[in-house]
Write a structure and sequence with these properties.
The protein has helices at residues 29-46, 59-68, 74-87, 91-95, 99-106, 112-130, 138-141, 149-159, 170-178, 187-194, 203-216. By secondary structure, it is mainly alpha-helical. The protein has two domains: 29-51 and 165-227, Orthogonal Bundle (Endonuclease Iii, domain 2); 59-152, Hypothetical protein, domain 2 (Endonuclease III, domain 1, Orthogonal Bundle), CATH 1.10.340.30.
């Protein structure tokens, strides 16, 4: 009998590991500003029709809608405001509203008790201090009950076409960090970090672009990086 040959051991080929190309975070202020400009250029091309998602016909309506939008979707607010504005077409009518009736009308937006107090207080202030009109300065707006800097920025930028600051909501805050524009988490500090990176005339549109991109692509749980127009220059890209 012929001796058995020893079985040959299979030779495993070494695995070739391909590293993902991750864009580096800008190291200098100049690089950061250049990256910010490229982000804006690409986003405006992707969302040329980006705009305020809250339906409104005048500053008063936008102010009311923005107060209602706290912890609530714009879609839900837009479902509530048509009937609300029919009952309270201006600040004077809103100031005369019964709180219980107002609460019932805005209940579906959440936190309806605190929101109704803010709306009534805001309406009384407009009537008593501003002749029923919405003021067009940050200082005067933020003196109104229920109106903070974010709400004032929304009204100034979209109702008065005045860029005083940048609206920082949850989408803007999330994207500002993922894109490497800032490491801040406080909305006021995020706004302060973003303002020097973009021309003043872009501030209102910047918020719309980041919000739209945050809703469609750069969502909170699992961002859709393969479909993102920024995935080759975003430091948080997963592709």
């Amino acid at each position: 009998m012929k001796p058995k040959r020893p079985a040959r051991k299979a030779v495993r080929k070494p695995r070739v590991v391909t590293k993902k190309r991750v864009a580096k975070r800008p190291r200098s202020a100049k690089e950061l500003k250049e990256r910010a400009a490229e982000y804006y250029r690409r986003l405006i091309a992707a969302y040329p029709d980006a705009h305020c998602a809250l339906d409104h016909a005048n500053p008063y309506q936008l102010l009311v809608a923005t107060i209602l939008s706290a912890q609530c979707t714009d879609k839900r607010v837009n479902m509530v405001t048509p009937e609300l504005f029919r009952h309270y077409p201006d600040a004077a009518h809103l100031a005369d509203a019964e709180q219980e009736s107002l609460e019932a009308e805005i209940r579906s937006t959440g936190f309806f008790r605190s929101k109704s107090k803010s709306l009534l207080g805001m309406a009384h202030s407009l009537v008593n201090r501003h002749g029923g009109s919405v003021p067009n300065t940050m200082e005067e707006l933020t003196k109104l009950p229920g109106v903070g800097r974010k709400t004032a920025n929304v009204v100034l930028g979209n109702a008065f076409d005045t860029n005083v600051g940048i609206v920082v909501d949850t989408h803007v805050a999330r994207l500002a960090n993922r894109l490497g524009l800032t490491g801040e988490t406080d909305p006021v500090k995020i706004e302060a970090a973003l303002m020097p990176l973009f021309p003043v005339e872009q501030w209102t549109m910047l918020s719309h672009l980041l919000i739209e991109h945050g809703r469609q692509i750069c969502v909170a749980r699992v961002p859709r990086c393969p479909q993102c127009v920024l995935n080759d220059i975003c430091p948080s890209s997963r592709v």
